[in-house]
Design goal:
By secondary structure, the chain is an alpha+beta fold. The chain folds into 2 domains: 134 residues, no CATH class; 140 residues, no CATH class. 46% of the residues lie in helices and 11% in strands. The chain has 12 helices and 6 strands. The strands form 2 sheets. It has a 4-stranded mixed sheet with strand order 3-4-6-5. A two-stranded antiparallel sheet has the order 1-2. Strand 1 and strand 2 form a beta hairpin. The longest helix has 20 residues. The radius of gyration is 20 Å and the shape is globular.
Length: 295
């Protein structure tokens, strides 16, 4: 990542002032170690981060980094979701920060997951998502971004293409999985998830040859549905990856009926009843409205 420096005025203990450099190298010192744990606490900002509104070159030059949203209710919701998502996978929290831009609010319509163990979440995307679909939409977006953290940690996805599609579709699957799991968001009615996901899937695109291609809207709907279905089972990240691409590659290329998932026969028996449905979602034969009403 490009290294940026920002000079911040520091008030000393004796009311003296001095200049200090705020670099991303220093910020990374605050990242929690990548160790598997059963519970996690919210990481507090380091002293340097408290005094420096440091972001990076992925955000506008007027954007500022914050440890809270506009009110404590929103902040507590996101922090609690971060802990719950990480705990679902038996891991500690990444660094969750929020990005505001008083000069250009809409410039923060983004959420970024960094390989250095950080997730930066924009004010604009948070409040737009909440206004259109409620808390579940932001829980889903955050679970998607944490899915990228799992990819960084475990070297996933196991499938590679010339575009970002497998990374993004698997992260969609991780989100669908989290929303269903009893120790996750615990939504067993898919229509609740699908209605919220219509907001997030709007970032699907048809630029299939672009390196940043994320998958078409129909493919992204199919991916979150597959993740939701796999939420029937307790899987670790690697097992999720294996099963996700076992079925999703079949959905994409139509070869899923040529073999059985002998590594997970119980899952295969369950999934076999949904394969044709997944393919119809992926091809667009199941409309967005029909998708919302799946059971």
């Amino acid at each position: 990542m490009k290294r940026n420096f920002n000079l911040c005025l520091i008030a000393g203990a004796i009311a003296a002032t001095s200049l200090a450099a705020c670099s991303d190298d220093k910020m990374d010192d605050n990242v929690l170690p990548q160790q598997e744990v059963q519970s996690a606490t919210i990481e507090q900002p380091g002293e340097l981060e408290k005094i420096c509104s440091y972001v990076d070159n992925y955000w506008s030059s007027s954007a500022v980094l914050k440890t809270s949203l506009q009110n404590s209710t929103d902040t507590n919701f996101m922090n609690s979701q971060m802990t719950k998502i990480a705990s679902l996978w038996g891991r500690s929290n990444p660094t969750l920060r929020f990005v505001d831009d008083p000069s250009n609010f809409n410039s923060t319509y983004n959420a970024i997951s960094y390989s250095t163990g950080k997730i930066y979440y924009g004010y604009a995307i948070y409040y737009d998502a909440k206004s259109k679909g409620g808390d579940i939409v932001n829980a889903m977006i955050l679970a998607h971004e944490y899915g990228h953290q799992l990819q960084y940690i475990f070297g996933l996805p196991s499938t590679s293409e010339n575009t970002a599609r497998p990374n993004e579709l698997e992260a969609d699957g991780f989100a669908g999985y989290y929303l269903r799991r009893p120790n996750g968001y615990n939504k067993t009615n898919f229509s609740e998830i699908a209605a919220a996901y219509e907001f997030a899937q709007s970032i699907g695109d048809y630029q299939t040859s672009s390196p940043n291609h994320h998958g078409t809207p129909a493919q992204r709907r199919s991916a979150v549905r597959l993740g939701f279905l796999l939420g029937q089972y307790d899987l670790n990240a690697s097992n999720f990856d294996y099963n996700f691409f076992y079925y999703y590659q079949g959905v994409l290329n139509g070869t899923y009926k040529m073999g059985k998932n002998i590594a997970n026969p119980e899952i295969d028996a369950y999934m076999s009843q949904y394969i044709d449905e997944l393919k119809k979602i992926q091809t667009g034969e199941i409309s967005a409205e029909e998708f919302k009403n799946l059971k």
